[in-house]
Amino acid sequence: MEAEQLGAGTKRAAVAALPKDFAHLAQEPELAEARNQEVRIRRAEAAKLTALLDYRARKLQEHQGQHAFTRAAVEKAIVRDAALVLTATESAVRRLLECAEFLQEKLPQTWGAYAEGAVDWARAQRIAQAAEDIAHREDLLPVLDEDAKLKAPGMNRAEVDQWVKRRVPELDAEAYSARCERARSKRYVVFAHLDDGMTKIDAMVPTVSVAALERHLWTRAQARIESSAQGAATLTQRVADEFVQRLQGSGVNGPAPTEIVPQGADSAVGSGSGSGSGASRPGSVNAKISILVPAETLLGNSEAPAVSEDKSFVLPASDVRQIAHDPQAEHDWLAAGIRADSQGSGEITSIVPLGTRYPLEGWDGASALARAVNLLDTSSRSRFVSGQLREAILTRDRTCQAHGCTRPAWRADVDHKTPHDQGGGTTPQNTWVLCRDHHIMKSHRLLPVPGKDPPQ
């Protein structure tokens, strides 16, 4: 991170530097002013919350030693007072104060980054929400706090969400598994029939039961072209149409294809179908989902959770082992070699196909990776990326590679960095995953290829 001058009379704050490929934006005066104003707003918000917490502390101190009922009433009055001066609801103010107090007491470095303007309230709040799951672990909170201080300033809200989803279960896998078990008891489906001939469906169901369905619906919708008197259906509308078709009758029984990827020389990857403990199966779908799981988890030597290929969800170890050993599943196993980068994240450097049978009997990760072909070392003479090469690139990149974008790779395009018609090869080194929006920007030279600044 770099300290940036925010104007005369303004103290310097540890605000994350712009990404290297976008450093030229700092020279745009309107954007520079907008960035400065954003930091000022964050500092003002933090000062506001600090003032409210100070008011709360003073009022409670004034009533120290009084009856518990009296102090409870004072707490309510404090929230009421703050709501009145902020023209906000009491419930909203109560949530603000609870979160701010948690950050100050349990995650002081994250709070400090917020107070300096390095992160906004949305990111600080999301980190606090995730930290509540390990609030009882005084040994782990400082670890998460330090990580958040280093990482969050350079991430947007969606990236922070993906990161804490992975990081908190990594810190306490057993607590995460227990939380997943408790969450299953809260499953429900609610139908709300509206007054315009439409129905809103709200559901809370196990992720492992519906992840493949999500991918199936999007894949089918992307391939489907429809028009009507009102014009062409949008992608969102086509997804809804595919969902309704599934509800109305295309088989709702049978396993849903899933893909599992064990990681590293000491990890494994596979594709298959199945459900977690106590989860019902979705209907048979022509789509796969990929999850990355340490081989030690599959072998039962670790409770480290699995992470979906697109980083959107995490599965507890018990669910992963059940999927891996499901006799009805059709797996395509891969081994993914992982190398930690300077930020502590895992970079996939090799992807080796291992076949369809469970590969971990007598598993030797290093030997397995050395014996087989690394798909990330292969190439194609074709312009279009397909087959195992495409799957390897999707698994490697996981999401759109444009800075800050979290759209899943399976909903994106595989693009040549140097265009094929300009001599660019169809190789993993010359290809990357871009969502449609960022692909269009790149085609019009509005998205820099890594290493080039500004866009050309």
Automatic annotation (TrEMBL):
Which organism encodes this protein?
Answer: Nesterenkonia sphaerica
Protein name, entry field: DUF222 domain-containing protein
Q: Where is this region: Disordered?
A: 248-283
Classification lineage: Bacteria, Bacillati, Actinomycetota, Actinomycetes, Micrococcales
Q: Which residues form the HNH nuclease domain?
A: 388-440
**Which superkingdom does the taxonomy of this entry point to?**
Bacteria
